[in-house]
Amino acid sequence: MSQGDGFKKIADTLKSQGLIRSAGAFKLFSFFSGSAHRLKPGEYSLSPILTTPDIVRRLVAGIPEDVKVLIPEGATLKEIDERLSGLGIITKGALSNFSLQILKEEYPFLEDAQTLEGFLFPDTYRFFPKSDPAQVVKRFLDNWRRQVLPLFSETSVIVYDALIKASIIEKEIQPETDRSVVAGILDRRLKQGIPLQVDATIVYLKCGGAFRNCPMLTRKDFQLDSSFNTYKHIGLPPTPIANPGLVSIRAVLNPTETSFLYYLSDPNTKKTIFAETLDEHNQNRLHYLH
After folding, report:
1. For residue 94, what are the domain limits?
2. What pairs with residue 127 in β-bridges?
3. pTM of this structure
4. For residues 104-110, average pLDDT
């Protein structure tokens, strides 16, 4: 609806787009409610499920100011849900509990996905307060399809498996130059049937899909019986543990082959320390972690 649109044209446009059943009823309600001359121009997101009074109220209220939101690399589904709900964009839990089934035909890359974890591409977005959760999800998925999906066009790598590995690397490895090496280590361990032994998957498990403010891991945490416990279970966890950025995804698609089987991060410098053998890795643990 643009500035200068006549009242009749507005009613006819709403009718032609299937948003109202009767242009006459819309005009009558608007006139008798005193709203006919108070409709504000703007680009509205309306639905046929809205009643005529609902639509009139929205057109009178006008378009609310949108909210700029930065989604950082490595943020989890739960953290993003909390961020958007805290800003009044969605209700709490709308993303975490969103059913993907209705979107899998439109977005075939979701075929193996169990949740939105991994597909909420880190970027800067603008959303309106009280947005339709489905529209918010589609904004994320459209961006993921535009920026990430082309990377898989010339590879036979399973998209969902790659996202899981990329999410692990995103949470585990800070230096970007080390990520392809760690991607190669994950591949080697998977091929040899060695547990991945990734601390980040335990954190994800312990704190219910969040990393912020999660207490330090204890020995008891490593005994948790879950497929996210990559110390007890061989193979990848069942879902990504975060939403990775392009650097981590590219690292997974272009792993560096080495003789390394182990790694750890120096807590002081964040440098990645690699090892070929368990004995060497244990020595590194004593040196850097104690």
Report:
1. 67-151
2. 67
3. 0.78
4. 93
